[in-house]
Amino acid sequence: MRRIHGKRALVTGAASGIGRSIAMQLAREGVHLALLDHNEVELKQLDAKALGIDAEPLHLICDLRDREQIQEAVQQLIRHWQGVDILINNAGVAYYGSTHAMSQDEWQQILGVNLLAPVELTRLLLPYLLAEPEAHIVNVSSMYGHLATNRSTAYHLTKFGLVGFSEALRAEYARSGLGVTSLCPGFVATGLFSSMTSSTDREAQPPAWICTSSEYVASLTIRAIRRNQRTVFVGWLARLACFVRRVWPGLFDQFYRLRRPEFFKRRIFAPVRQLIDSRS
Ligand code: NAI
């Protein structure tokens, strides 16, 4: 999409973090905005004055876990604009903890917000996006959509899913003028970690020095829409980690094996003890 000025964009999870920064930068580019979130108070703070524009954005209060609410939000959007040019599936939630300790509700929450909601929004809006000569979908995945760590299985499932979903849509609709990007940031300094569900007491907030800013993520998002980029890794950590994962996939297996106490017992403590015993 060469020219984004004057286009109509729906941004989910716009009340805070990356979604908020994307909304602010799109507003500066002259894009008309529909902002969706379940956090009504914070969403409504993102008004015309905060965005530095004349016309009020359309605020859609919607819990993305609920399919009926998604359908209502889409109906409201279409009544308002009769179409849409850009869909940014950004809203997300995280979980940190052992997979076997996850409840059914926790699985449903992560899958619902991070994966099923983007699929449903895309399903409902595709006819309108395809009716435009140029349109674009951005799915906010993560570096965790390309490499897996421990204790985040549900999150990985959704982020890997979004990468596959994006690539399949891109292949299917390349000829129709629909661009699709999967955006894969490393750690970003937002409220995601403090709002995260966790089954452990461990501090999950990554240190500031490995985090990028949500403003930087937003600027790369707009560039990706303009250039119709397939995948965008945001930040040095995402680029490095995903590169290593591609060229040396076994390294991550070895790393996680190293952290297993049995591994230490069998491969390190036992041989050292044998050595000491044999010398005495
Ligand atoms: P955030 O917590 O600041 O923003 C998430 C937004 O989604 C919030 O405004 C929240 O109210 C909204 N949301 C959550 N559940 C919702 C629901 N049921 N219905 C409607 N809205 C809901 O977090 P952040 O970091 O801005 O996350 C945005 C996206 O970026 C997420 O998809 C996340 O997975 C992804 N991401 C974040 C990274 C990070 O380090 N912060 C790294 C890589 C990807």
Describe the structure.
This is SDR family NAD(P)-dependent oxidoreductase. It holds the Pfam family adh_short. Helix 4 runs parallel beside helix 5. This protein has one domain: NAD(P)-binding Rossmann-like Domain (Rossmann fold, 3-Layer(aba) Sandwich), CATH 3.40.50. The N and C termini lie far apart (75 Å). The longest helix has 27 residues. It has ten helices and nine strands. A seven-stranded parallel β-sheet has the order 3-2-1-4-6-7-9, with helices on both faces. Helix 6 links the parallel strand 6 and strand 7. It is of the alpha/beta class and 280 residues long. 1,4-dihydronicotinamide adenine dinucleotide binds next to helix 1.
How are the elements arranged and paired?
Elements: E1 8-12, H1 17-28, E2 32-37, H2 40-45, H3 48-51, E3 58-61, H4 67-81, E4 86-89, E5 95-96, H5 104-130, E6 135-140, H6 153-173, E7 178-185, E8 197-198, H7 214-227, E9 231-234, H8 236-247, H9 250-258, H10 261-279
Parallel strand pairs: 1-2, 1-4, 2-3, 4-6, 5-8, 6-7, 7-9
1,4-dihydronicotinamide adenine dinucleotide (NAI) binds at residues 13, 15-19, 37-39, 62-65, 90-93, 113, 140, 142, 185, 187-188, 190-192, 195.
